[in-house]
Amino acid sequence: MKTAITPTRAENFSEWYQNLITAADLAENAPVRGCMTIKPYGWAIWELMRDELDKRIKAQGVQNAQFPLLIPINFFNKEAEHVAGFAKEAAVVTHYRLKAIDGVLQPDPDSKLTEPYIIRPTSETIIGDAMSRWVQSYRDLPLKLNQWVNVMRWEMRPRLFLRTSEFYWQEGHNAFATHEEANADARKMHKVYGDYMREVLSISSIMGEKTPEERFAGADHTYTLEHIMQDGKALQAGTSHDLGQHFSKSFGIQYLGTDGQLKHAWTTSWGVSTRMMGSLFMTHSDDDGLVLPPAVAPYQVVIIPITRDENADALNAYSEKLGEQLRDAGVRVLVDTSDMRAPDKMWKWIKRGVPLRVEIGAREMEENTVTITRRDLGKASKRTISDSELLSEVKNILKQIQQDMYDAVVERNKTMIHDVADLNELKVALENGRIGFFRIKNEQTQNEEFDGLMEKYKISRRCLDDNNPEYVYVAKSY
């Protein structure tokens, strides 16, 4: 059977993913090494993802702000454990001027900075510096801040959306008077992410705490959301960190308590990035292209008039009228009146993952009907309804697609999570090429034998089981 994306997922999942990005016109590699250019259709998906999450963040009493892109290197030196986690990925600004030397522009030797700057890999340090000024009294707490920005972490093995040197994200940074409040906040934002991914992205997350070996540099606790891709690999989709008092002590975030004593605040940080887009695409898409949940589809419906020269104007006008009715009801709809052949139009929007196609030919116009097809179910869902039913049917179908896509992920995940009794059983499963997450007692991973398996099979501890922290999930990852 012919498919739009070759090779197929079964033949070569990695290459399929790269070709999916191209076929759906989402992004391309930039001329800057390791970076990407997100194209308009891809950016429209990110905007929908971002705007919905931003509402949920603000509902938690968080305020948006904006902090500098460049961070003084001495800020990182104040938090040794933190800088160790990012030192190998840091991009450093050392000069402030260019000069033509032998006809070639290069950094002017006379413009060398007395102190280099780090291009923002994350903002705990510079936000901690601001908090040290903004927090003076217990009345200033809690302080809850968030920013939507780009960050830079020099990536040696880039892959569009999954690992790029520059990427986009939100990073939240909160400060509290007590450790109990801070830890509760880190856990709450963890749940906010889980709800968002379930309700908006139609993705079921494996949620739990990172083991000490895997937690964020400088954190007391890291809570993660792990997604299982169709090839069985893990993708870390978001994290929330209880930072204890590490950063408040390093940057002097202190407040005068109700007892008149000066105390250090307790801080958290939490973030998700454009990596979520990679997870979204790999979780739902098929060999014909992108499959998008309606909540984040730039066009939830595409109307395709199937015209001939003699009826093109009338069919296009009829299609535009139906499209306007849907737009007035809040549906994101595109009426494709381009001069492409109808089959080419259909393939274009199949590859781009539009949840619902509405096809209208001369016969449908005469009979006041339309033919509708769900992207997630393909030809099996094709049926004809009256145009008077279109509005109510579209709303019901879009809601059903959103739920059905989530249910499909839940069912697939059940086949990808395996309990193993010991390291020998884990080793046999890996040797036999079994894919997915392996659930094993965490104590069994605290030895050299497991370290050897990690190196040989490129697996890692993803997170502790939230329902039973004695167990840990182990998997290969992106």
Question: How would you describe what is shown here?
Answer:
The chain is an alpha+beta fold and 478 residues long. It folds into 3 domains: 13-75 and 123-284, BirA Bifunctional Protein, domain 2; 294-413, Rossmann fold (3-Layer(aba) Sandwich), CATH 3.40.50.800; 420-476. Helix content is 35%, strand content 28%. The protein is built from 14 helices and 25 strands. It has helices spanning 13-23, 40-58, 73-77, 80-86, 124-134, 179-199, 246-251, 275-284, 312-328, 342-351, 362-367, 390-416, 423-431, 448-457; strands at residues 27-29, 36-38, 63-64, 70-72, 92-95, 98-101, 104-107, 112-119, 143-152, 166-176, 206-209, 221-228, 234-242, 254-256, 262-264, 266-273, 301-305, 333-335, 356-360, 369-374, 383-386, 417-419, 437-441, 459-465, 468-476. It has a 7-stranded mixed β-sheet, with helices on both faces. A 5-stranded mixed β-sheet has the order 18-17-19-20-21, sandwiched between helices. Strand 1 and strand 2 (36-38) form a beta hairpin. Helix 2 crosses helix 6 (179-199). The mean pLDDT is 95.
